[in-house]
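Explain my protein.
***
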Amino acid sequence: MILNKILKNTFIVIIFGLVVSACATKKTSTSTSAKIDSQLQGDVYIGSDTVGELAKGVPDRVFFATNESILTTKSRDTLRKQAAWLRENADVNVVVEGHADERGTREYNLALGERRANAAKDYLMTYGISADRISVISYGKERPVDPGSNPLSWSKNRRSVTVKAN
């Protein structure tokens, strides 16, 4: 009888502990999920913590969806700013670097990075920037800006970056 009461009370304490810990885990998960969601639109990165500048007030990179080289509306806005700056600085040449996330083979990601860099180059050219001033290189997955292995890190790594040529 006493043993049954002890087992019953122990069981109740264990269940209570599991319920409390599950609630605590869910809150943390929701908070983390909300932070990640605020930095993504679909699976395209829209945050700003990894964005540098080509020049003052001119972002240097654009982001892409998984396995895509199609420019988003935000990417086109960034590239228009780059083109305007390049028109004002006709003596500056640039290199457009294409990057991919860690998933996929090395060869696939090099090709994808090149498609992304060429998409950015082609868009700059539609705004009057000569092809002679723009070089393209793909690093594939070899130069991640975020070494994590999760959806937010992957979204930061799917990018093209415009840098001044040496």
